[in-house]
Write a structure and sequence with these properties.
The chain is mainly alpha-helical and 125 residues long. It has helices spanning 3-53, 73-124, and strands at 60-64, 67-71. It has a two-stranded antiparallel sheet with strand order 1-2. β1 and β2 (67-71) form a beta hairpin. The chain is rod-shaped and about 85 Å long. The termini are close together. 3% of the residues are buried.
Length: 125
């Protein structure tokens, strides 16, 4: 293999390694976001469970800034249910993207490994 071909292979290997690192960085960010969403999901599930224990005539308050403002229980329950639905959808979206990233990482890793083996084979010859 010529010197020019080796240089091209090294450039391809570096590019593949950088792409793999970018995928890992995105994966780390998504995992952090998923953890935050799961924490919010648990909190909202607790609120939803508490609302189910309340009677329909119970008073519910919402904190707006430093003030507690009365809120209709049905409205508060609907808000929590919408929030739960949104959070669950976001968690699903992140899970799908994480699966895609895993597949992309596998492909990039295989490509980088092949390039590395080609370069090692050349340097050993």
């Amino acid at each position: 293999m010529s010197e020019k071909a080796q240089t091209e292979k090294r450039a391809q290997l570096e590019k593949a390694t950088m792409a793999l690192q970018e995928l890992r960085n995105e994966q780390t960010t998504l995992i952090e976001n998923r953890q935050k969403l799961e924490s919010q999901l648990q909190e909202n599930e607790l609120v939803d469970a508490e609302f189910k224990l309340l009677s329909n005539t119970a008073r519910v308050y919402k904190m707006i800034g430093p003030v507690l403002v009365p809120q209709d229980k049905l409205e508060a329950t609907a808000n929590v249910e919408k929030r739960l639905e949104y959070i669950r959808d976001e968690v699903k979206r992140i899970e799908v993207r994480l699966e895609q990233l895993a597949n992309e990482q596998q492909a990039k890793s295989t490509d980088a490994y092949k390039l590395q083996m080609e370069l090692q084979g050349v340097s050993q010859a």
